[in-house]
Structure formats: structure tokens, C-alpha cells
Amino acid sequence: MYHSHVHNAIQELMGLDGMFIVRGKKEEPVQRDYVLLLQEWAVKTGSASMDMEANQPYGGKGQESSKKSSNMSTGVKPGTYEIDPKVMMYNYFTINGKAYPSTDPLFVRYGDRVRLRLGNLSMDSHPMHFHGHDFLVTAADGNAIPSYVRLKKNTINVAPGETWDIEFFANNPGNWVFHCHKPHHTANAHSKGLGGMLTIVRYTT
Ligand SMILES: [Cu+2]
Question: How far is the centre of ligand 1, averaged over its atoms, from the C-alpha of 183 (Å)?
């Protein structure tokens, strides 16, 4: 991962960071290889009521105001909004810069060996959970883990600054969610609908 160290509480939390891959000569072959950069944002939605809800995790003014909003499933209307890097109450949680349902699906085919490279450049940890499969933890902060000590898990906590590589065998066809297990992190602006740090592993034929 790379990121700014100039005013980094501001620059890093406004997105001046990213990931790159250094391929090892002895890297084990996989059929799919995905990078997932985890981030979080305090988005000024421009709506006083929505900002209030964003700062009150349990729904702001309650169901009445929720019913009035036409965009509760995605949080805010499409548009351009400012990010406030100085507050700790985040309302958007993204994978590669996008919150569900805008996150890119991870396409796999039956029989694939699939690698996911997870990195966290945010203030919070993100326990990433996979449905329908277990995975092996194959690298920690870019260092390969020998095959005889690899943990088999279905949730891995990615702390700030960490990278973890995980691999799974695509042997259970369907559409399976892969998501942060902190409930607030799978909603957009704390709305009721599914959102945030969540994507779908989609089997194709
Ligand atoms: Cu999270």
C-alpha cells in the first residue's frame, strides 16, 4: 500500500493512497486475483436531515423521517459531495472507492483458485466475512505464509495499515456476499438498505 505522509490525517483520509502488486517469481498460480482496498469516508451529504442521521447511528429522527426520504436504500441522491477528513463519524465505507450496490462483483468460475488481496487504509478495522466458503490466509503484509501453517477461516480482521492475502477454492456455485462484519459498515449514511463495504462473489459459466 502507499499513502501520503504529508498532513496525512487529512490527505490519507481524503483518498491520497492506493495499492500496487509486486509479483513474486515463485508466486503460486491462481485463476482470479483481486485487490480490495478498504476505506471509509465522512461525506457531507448536503442534507441536514441526512447529516443528522449520519451522525446518529440509530436513525436520527426515527421512522417518520426515514419514510420521507426517497433514497434510504442508497443513503443520498447521486451527486458530488465534500469529504470531511477531520471527523471520526464515518458514513460511507468502500471497497476500491465504491459502496454497495456500486461495488464491482468478483467473478469466478467453478474450479477456480481465487486470491483476494485485502488492504486497509482507514481509521477502523474491518472484519471481512465470506459466505459459502472457507479461505486460507496465504500472506500477511506481503509476506507469504508457509502452506503448513495457513489458517482456514471465513472472517479475517483487517486492521488499519495491514494487508492480508486470502485464497479460496470456488467449489460452491451461487452468488455469495463478502463484507465487513461491522453492521454500520454495510449501510450507506446509516440508512436501512444494504450498502457500504460489501460485494458479491458471482459464479459465471
Ligand atoms: Cu468495516
Answer: 8
